[in-house]
Specification:
The chain is of the alpha+beta class. The protein is built from 18 helices and 27 strands. Strand 12 and strand 13 form a beta hairpin. Helix content is 35%, strand content 22%. A four-stranded antiparallel sheet has the order 4-1-16-7. Strands 3-2-5-6 form a four-stranded antiparallel sheet, with no helix packed on it. The protein has a four-stranded antiparallel sheet with strand order 14-9-8-15, with no helix packed on it. Keywords: GTPase activation, Metal-binding, Repeat, Zinc, Zinc-finger. This is RAS p21 protein activator 2.
């Protein structure tokens, strides 16, 4: 219970390079990209900037560090088509120096890259002395243990070790055998001198021949944070306070909302907050509450959910986490086709090259847009339940806020589904891990054109009116006219509801002979059946335990399946085998993430006091056959709730002056019926209920001050016991 875990996170902006070494020939420009490496393991790569010696990258990367490391390194490469990419230079920041540069834009001189400087790992030398060391040397045994050696091009390296012996009468050097494909090995030496444990370092003369001032510079903004996670019981008070946030009235007085108010960059607050609320199944009510607050300040329909508020940021982050698998199964196949076998799609007259056929390019682009668009609209059944639940709430909130606009329920969702989710993933597939690297310039341009069209199609369908004015370029207006058909509007509105409507003539069992004709309707929230228009029975999707075929012998009827959702199953007969299969697949997809899905079931019915399949005489007997529905397993999101709470504690601790300032503002409003200081002091805070907000602030401050004590105790213990080079 006393263990403290250390976690690291990095948020970094690779901005630009300048004064890179030119080619020696007449064409001095280079095609450059930058990689981000943990030691020598590449974790990210920027786009290629063509024909420049001062390339601007302007890309931001966030990642959590899953292991120990020595250096965070940045390599500038010159892209080569026929040969291996050339490394121009690097910036390597030691782990212990990262804090010096955190949240500061800094220009770093590029350092040369050579085999002597590319060193990492640790070596452990253990010496057992058998006798005193004399001038002639003495015999002893020494074990060399190495680990943490680098990967070379993603593969284990072929290491060996040398040991130099220096004495008054002789100098000697011994070399081990090469160990193939490993990052850890043990070697035995004889006639050795010392005992020590140390980090491997470059040779002193490794880069004497290189001139560092000739290689150029790289501008970076690195934010590195370390979290010391205490045992879970320390966070109980803060965790409980945060998890109550969706129920606080007004929500602006909640701890979660206040976190977003006091953090300079809302992204700092959003990431741990969303992950914590997801972990405890509180994200839907919280996003609903803050979205309702946003709508109070929205005066026009066309600006609905368009700002970077706490609500939109939380939903963006939730979609990235929850929708990761959804994007992969939906977009990855078509993006792989576009990136691996690209067709020319440039339709801008200014950018066309001599000999290009713009009509062919339009057809190529139309083919890609159709394929991406159809993939999206056909994927609604695969949309994660959490996203469906949030979108369902947004639709109803928007309709309530603007009751006279019949299309607002679609525009409320379109800004997220198309603009902030699918379109962003299309234009930057590497960011969502849909592609290993940033696409080349031509493919990137194609993806940009596809993304623009998809965004406008989403807006078109949601607002049911022409959006040609949204294009600044005339050539895009002309291209978009190819999509002015009613079927696109209908398809977009269908996916914006994130519901799958399907009518089928089904029959429900009340008794063996009592099969009745009913209309069935399946949405992402419920399965209902109808006698006419109004539903007469509904099953919430979250209650479905499994969906399986039913043996024909049960009722002597073909094409039957069963929906098991409680004590008794619902038996349904479809019109044909294809329809039955489609219903089983659809029901399995919408219920695939239900937590209590069954692993076994009864393939037949319970009639006349026994199960026809296994002859068991008790109706609630556990199933006798493994479930066979071929659906993805529940997609688990790995979240450490304590770690996220620790991060939130750190943010509150760092922003304690703002918490106190906000507390002062609440007191001023409560006592004097309004702020008595200049607007600049308080205007950035949202305070709807000064009394409720004041009470929450007092709780936050007290909890943070209490948590400060074990953190300070641990820091003192760590600083007094830690020595450089020790374990």
């Amino acid at each position: 219970g006393s263990r403290v875990l250390l976690w690291g996170r990095v948020l970094q902006m690779v901005s630009e390079a300048k004064n890179l070494v030119p080619y020696s020939g007449p064409n001095k420009m280079r095609d450059c990209f930058c990689t981000i490496n943990l030691d020598q393991e590449e974790v990210f790569r920027t786009q290629v900037v063509e024909k420049s010696l001062s390339p601007f990258f302007g890309e931001e990367f966030y990642f959590e560090i899953p292991r120990t490391f020595q250096c965070l390194s940045f390599y500038i490469y010159d892209k080569s088509v026929l040969q291996r990419d050339l490394r121009i230079g690097k910036v390597a920041i030691k782990k212990e120096d990262l804090c010096k540069y955190t949240s500061k834009e800094t220009w770093f001189l590029l350092q040369p890259v050579d085999s002597n400087s590319e060193v990492q790992g640790k070596v452990h030398l253990e010496l057992k002395l058998n006798e005193l060391i004399t001038d002639n040397g003495s015999v002893c045994q020494q074990l060399v243990e190495c680990h943490g050696l680098p990967l070379v091009n993603g593969q284990n390296c072929d290491p060996y070790a040398t040991v130099s012996l220096m004495g008054p009468s002789r100098n000697d050097q011994k070399k081990t055998k090469v160990k193939k494909k490993t990052i850890t090995f043990n070697i035995v030496f004889y006639n050795c001198l010392v005992i020590f444990r140390y980090l491997l370092q470059p040779r002193e003369n490794g880069n004497k021949s290189s001139k560092t001032d000739d290689l150029g510079s790289l501008r970076l903004n690195v934010c590195y944070t370390e979290d010391y996670v205490l045992p879970s019981e320390y966070y109980a008070s803060l965790r409980n306070l945060l998890l109550k946030s969706p129920d606080v009235q007004p929500v602006s007085a909640s701890a979660a909302y206040i976190l977003g108010e006091v953090c300079r960059d809302k992204y700092d607050a959003v990431l741990p907050l969303v992950r914590l609320l997801l972990h405890h199944q509180k994200i839907v009510p919280f996003v609903t509450a803050v979205a309702e607050l946003d709508l109070k300040d929205t005066q026009e329909v066309n600006t609905i959910f368009r700002g970077n508020t706490l609500a939109t940021r939380c939903l963006d982050e939730m979609m990235k986490i929850v929708g990761k698998h959804y994007l992969k199964v939906t977009l990855k196949p078509v993006l792989d086709e576009i990136c691996e076998s690209p067709k020319p799609c440039e339709i801008d007259p200014i950018k066309l090259k001599e000999g290009d056929n713009v009509e062919v390019h339009k057809e190529n682009l139309r083919y890609y847009v159709d394929k991406v668009f159809n993939t999206i609209v056909q994927s609604s059944i695969s949309c994660p339940t959490l996203m469906c639940d949030v979108f369902y709430s947004l639709r109803h909130l928007a309709a309530k806020r603007f009751p006279n606009d019949p299309h607002v329920q679609y525009s409320a969702v379109s800004s997220f589904v198309f603009l902030r989710f699918f379109a962003v993933a299309v234009v930057s597939p590497h960011t969502f891990h849909l592609r290993p690297h940033h696409p080349d310039a031509q493919t990137s341009r194609t993806l940009t054109l596809i993304s623009k069209t998809i965004q406008t199609l989403g807006s078109w369908g949601s607002l049911s009116k022409s959006k040609l004015s949204s294009f600044k370029e005339t050539f895009m207006c002309e291209f978009f006219k190819m999509f002015q058909e009613e079927k696109f509007t209908e398809a977009v509105q269908k996916v914006l509801t994130i519901e799958m409507y399907k009518r089928a003539q089904g029959r429900t069992r009340i008794g063996k002979k009592n099969f009745k004709k009913r209309w069935f309707c399946l949405t992402s929230r419920e399965l209902t059946y109808h006698k006419q228009r109004e539903p007469i029975y509904n099953i919430p999707i979250k209650n479905i335990l499994t969906v399986e075929k039913l043996e024909e012998s049960a009722f002597n009827r073909k094409n039957m399946f069963q929906v098991i959702y409680g004590e008794k199953p619902l038996y349904i007969q479809a019109n044909n085998c294809v329809e039955a299969s489609e219903w089983i697949e659809a029901l399995c997809r919408v219920s695939r993430c239900n937590q209590k899905r069954l692993s076994v079931y009864h393939p037949s019915a319970f009639l006349n006091g026994n199960w026809l399949c296994c002859k068991a005489t008790t109706e609630n007997t556990k199933g006798c056959t493994p479930c066979t529905a071929g659906v993805p397993a529940d997609i688990q999101i790995e979240i450490d709730g304590d770690r996220e709470t620790e991060r939130i504690y750190s943010l509150f601790a760092i922003n304690m002056p703002k918490l106190q300032k906000m507390e002062e503002a609440c007191g001023s409003i409560a006592v004097y019926q309004g702020p008595q200081k200049e607007l600049d002091d308080y205007s950035n805070f949202t305070i709807e209920d000064s009394v409720a907000t004041f009470q929450t602030l007092q709780q936050i401050i007290a909890i943070v001050e209490k948590l400060n004590e074990p953190h300070e105790k641990y820091r003192k213990k760590r600083s007094s016991s830690a020595k450089y080079g020790s374990e």
